[in-house]
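Need tokens for this chain, all 683 residues.
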Amino acid sequence: MSQPRRIALLLALATFALYLPVAWFGFVVYDDGLYVTDQPIVQAGVTWAGVKWAFVTMAASNWHPLTWLSHMIDCGVFGLNPAGPHVVNALFHAANVALLFTLLMRITNKLWPSAFIAALFAWHPLHVESVAWIAERKDVLSTFFTLLALLNYARYVELSKVQLAAPEHSGGGSKKSKVYFAWSLVTFALGLMAKPMLVTLPCVLLLLDFWPLKRVAVCKLQVEGSEPRNFQPSTFNLQLLLEKIPFFLISAASCAITFLAQSQRGSDAVVSLETVPLHYRLKSVPLAYVEYLEKTFWPAKLAIFYPLHEKIPAATVALSVALLVLISLATLWLYRTRPYLFTGWFWFLGTLVPVIGLVQVGGAALADRYSYLPSVGIFIAVTFTVCDLAAHFKISKCILAGIAIFILATCVITTENQLQHWRNSVTLFQHALAVTTDNDVARDNLGVALEQQGRLAEAAEQYRAAAKLEPDRYQGHHNLANALDRLGHPAEALAEHREAVRLGPDVQFLHHVLGLALVTAGKDDEALKEFATAAQLDAHYPWPHVEIAKIYLRQNRDPNALDELRTALRIDPDDIEILTFTAQVLAASENPATRNGQDAFALAAKANALANGRQPNVLDVLGMACAELGKFDDAQMAAQTALDTASALELKNVAPIQKRLQLYRNHQPWRETFGATNAPPKN
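Here are the structure tokens for all 683 residues:
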């Protein structure tokens, strides 16, 4: 094995070993539910329906089908064990390290600088978030395809230079170079299908054309057969720009799809100009760039969420702008003698553009994960500058190696410490509160984590604090309302539900949960209005129709209730719970005009098939439907199977099923009223 291959392998293995502790970490409450734990279609693994959904859904306010598919593969292989996706993230990061080293070696032919940059990328604590967070699979996955795209592009450039040097022998090489160019396009598109942040990659290709690929002066260098002492590019070659048109077209398509995804109704991913005004965004951009720089050189106080600055002083903005302009002018001034500064600096600036704050996504000032690929530009600029200065001042290689080892060792220790905060949601958000101020998002999520541990009173305290910090965000009020419901304070909870709806009038689920709270309070007429609003806001969500149907049944408006249940089934014909409840109404209602044994049996049989015969309540309703049709032997079999399944699952409260089984043995069907005086029993 050659030395570069050994180094690539060692870097990958060391990186995987560093991140191996994530195998013992759990899911976190922030976004992991959005991508995995609250997504039944993802949890089902790779299915034809899931694949189709992945390519058409705009869930999570993005179009990234490859990310969805990767999570489906995880669930298919590991189930809901978080160890699996954590290890896969670590493997992708290790692969990215090896790919980055290979890329840098190919385009610079500098072994140890390439190894150092790859190691910095591998072990920098700023990248912990991208690896340790299951929801950030899109980060490591998209970077994997991006590095493949850059490697294919580098190979295309190599073959193009060979063709230029020997045109009489370029026939086969010409075809091969086109293949690599095509693969570069394909892998770039795949990267965008994992995360659309990569839209500025065509500009990175132009930077690499400048240095280290030196394509601007490629004709002169090949004809003369000599390398100039200082890199002096000729007039910009328009052909290089035209060559990137396919890449720019793919980027434009990704931008259009992302805009549609983030502007869809009900999406709160993009913060409006009313919430974060344009003048604030313009001031926050230079400050964000400087903060990313600061965290790259001094990665302290890292958090999963950084709240927006309440105020940005004009002096801070001016200093930030001055620093950015000064660095940019310096790189332009030195572009002939230090071209790597130009490429590295503008790699950093350009790849951060989609997430720098002009378009506010998620309401955060910045995010560690956004630096995953952009930081490579800074690593390139600094590393090659130090190498040149060391050569100029004749600094010993031993001293240089010692400094490099110290930096990398510091990164490893800091990364190991940072990883510990990701053990679980409580430690993660407690750390975020410790290193940031006025962080309502962190308090909200800490409250959710505490609530999941059954620490309701502590959770309610966090929700109250979050709502006080940011009274105009509905999340704190919504979470507080749910906690108060569970703590047995329905009146206070209802007030918080109303406040959440006032703050988020276009958020469908807020109206739905308010409707449920109003039902509990006995205010059915108000609840009907909230459920109707929820159904109007999201025509693809069936549950408001189910809740409306339940109210109609209590009001003895059975025909209206059945219409609502049929609407719910049209929206989601494969929902087991809706199928089962509708079958129960059709099979067991005391109202003869409501009962329909054939339809009840068809719905219950479908629900049982979807549940693989493993849900006692579904089997119970199947027994009701069989009894309604006079098939009492089948009804007894279904009820007995329901009892056996409940026993195997160690479920209690099977007395109602036993009562029905006795009726079926006496050739009597089960009857119940769904009216207000006798709500349907819960099996």
